[in-house]
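Worked example 2:
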Amino acid sequence: MTHLFNKTAIRIVTTTGLVLAIAITTNDLTRAAEFKFNWKGDSGYLAKGSFNYDTTTAPNIISEAGLGTTKNLQSLSISFFDPLNNLINSLTPVVNGVSNYSFLRFNFNNTQEQIFGPFDVGKDDNLSGDTWLNNNLALIDEGFSNEVLTKEFGLNNRDAVGTKQILDLSNDSVQVSKVPEGSIIIGLLAVCSLGFTLKQKKTNPIRRKFRYYLN
């Protein structure tokens, strides 16, 4: 009887924990907006990333620049791939509302859900392996750059001795898509369901053996 009570109590606690987790996640989702973005160069190089911000405090236009505490962005990450889809570099220019990239330029219209204007995301400390994507023409217009390129966006990195090289260019803009709010909750439910299924498979054979012994 004690064993049965303990098992029932564990199930109640587990279920309650799941409900609380979903409730907390749902509350966070009502405040947070998460987006993914991607860019492809003419030669097949790729940049993929994500960012999020608090919708309760964000204005219609989110604009970030330079180092330090951000105005609205909570996180910003980006990964770079070669034409064969091999990872070149993966970076997090913004972590917990703080930018660690001195050349950061990020502008987002959260009404139209579009990235626009000066854009510079990645890492450039003049070190080997540094990689970044920028909207060079927009940076020139804003006085942030004096480099002249024939294409609007450029994917850059630094070689083994720290010399800048252009990996790819394109006039294609950075495309943005919103992450569905329910995806995290669905993930939680799937994990919980899998856990209960595995638990049932593990415990049911023992029950059958016990009943057989009683008979």
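The helical segments are 2-31, 136-141, 183-214. DSSP finds three helices and 14 strands in the chain.
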